Prior knowledge:
By secondary structure, this protein is mainly beta. It folds into five domains: 1-59, no CATH class; 64-211, Immunoglobulin-like (Sandwich), CATH 2.60.40.10; 224-307, Immunoglobulins (Immunoglobulin-like, Sandwich), CATH 2.60.40; 312-502, no CATH class; 508-573, Immunoglobulins (Immunoglobulin-like, Sandwich). The protein is globular.
Amino acid sequence: xxxxxxxxxxxxxxxxxxxxxxxxxxxxxxxxxxxxxxxxxxxxxxxxxxxxxxxxxxxxxxxxxxxxxxxxxxxxxxxxxxxxxxxxxxxxxxxxxxxxxxxxxxxxxxxxxxxxxxxxxxxxxxxxxxxxxxxxxxxxxxxxxxxxxxxxxxxxxxxxxxxxxxxxxxxxxxxxxxxxxxxxxxxxxxxxxxxxxxxxxxxxxxxxxxxxxxxxxxxxxxxxxxxxxxxxxxxxxxxxxxxxxxxxxxxxxxxxxxxxxxxxxxxxxxxxxxxxxxxxxxxxxxxxxxxxxxxxxxxxxxxxxxxxxxxxxxxxxxxxxxxxxxxxxxxxxxxxxxxxxxxxxxxxxxxxxxxxxxxxxxxxxxxxxxxxxxxxxxxxxxxxxxxxxxxxxxxxxxxxxxxxxxxxxxxxxxxxxxxxxxxxxxxxxxxxxxxxxxxxxxxxxxxxxxxxxxxxxxxxxxxxxxxxxxxxxxxxxxxxxxxxxxxxxxxxxxxxxxxxxxxxxxxxxxxxxxxxxxxxxxxxxxxxxxxxxxxxxxxxxxxxxxxxxxxxxxxxxxxxxxxxxxxxxxxxxx
Length: 574
């Protein structure tokens, strides 16, 4: 194959050289605009030349290259509402498979973090987990590549309850400018939904986003709540650049941006005062680089003025008064729920659980409680969502006289306790009746602390069931906590679990890396607060870390202790 690099058509089009001396009967080319091609053939023996007819190859916009995606059934999962910047689109018919909302768009900028919210619903009976993913085609290649996945989570959706899922997405600095597509996919019982193809239950929705350059003033990042009391809150952030002034907008939770209280500050952290006790608030911040040159607003940060710490911790402390046996109470409500059954209740007082206020709950026969709904299904494992699980197991309804489930508000507000007791519930296939477990959940109204108290966890099978060997113990919420996962060790040594709140939680999983006669090394994992600095105090066994010992400040989740005294007394580490 040869080519003619100088031939000019009558229309004035000039041919350009592609490849000379080609000996194959095919040619592959990459093009970014509509292009005409012709082939000029030279015969080796005779030297004769002939030219093919002209072929025009048009270039398709990447907008038309996206793969298809959608459900084959209209029941089960549905995307009810999408909120991102100026997008606020509701589609509540509960019959979605694929929805083309590419007529709806919003403006986003590279390097900027945006809050996004999805309202999701399971439109059938039962509770199911839905993998939820969001992609944006950042490089305009008509594909949703792995590096373009901006949100990835699994959400538990009870029957016919709209679940709000808030999160943040960050547009990478390398994103190309211009219009491109955003795809949202939810699939039932699939933790890793793909962007393409068909599936049975769920929905896909497509939108457009217009990516354009951000302001020259960089956006602050990592806005967070340092602490909150009944009357004030301290917030902090990381400056986006070298700016020395910021503007804060705050107001009641859910306030319309632009209508809140505005303040300027030249320092951070910043304390917002004169707040109303027992209320919910949120705030956002932006940098002021020069007069008239401000950054984009940060995402909102939320807090409450219930004087409750931000993070949940736990220990084995028992409540004052110990186990309260409701089976002997003449005022307790009694139920003997069927196997895998539930009852919905209204709580006698609001429960502030991990920053969210709940007034309803579903009690399950399997030893757990889900918050914020009266129609949830409780299985025999801890599931995503907001739930309390003192002894979640495959329990059956009680066969014992006086056995079953009791609940009662004990005492009077504002210093009462709400108690839920599971009495003598056997394992579902236990041959020994009524050899069941007896335990209870206690919620303290005044402190909002939560206790699990165990009276009898001997169930007739010392290897498989006793002491919670077949039970999960913990909580589920914004912060998940596993106390015991099908392990008898915890309840063999303790009879209570106590959950409470702090603003600075302890690091976890402290582990010994090695021990030598004169040195040692340890590692740990950051707490739910995601802290990046730690104070390590060590000294002879029994020393008081508040008044003595050696103190180190480290910024890694590990430490080496050097120059220890060989054969000395054991060393304590805090």
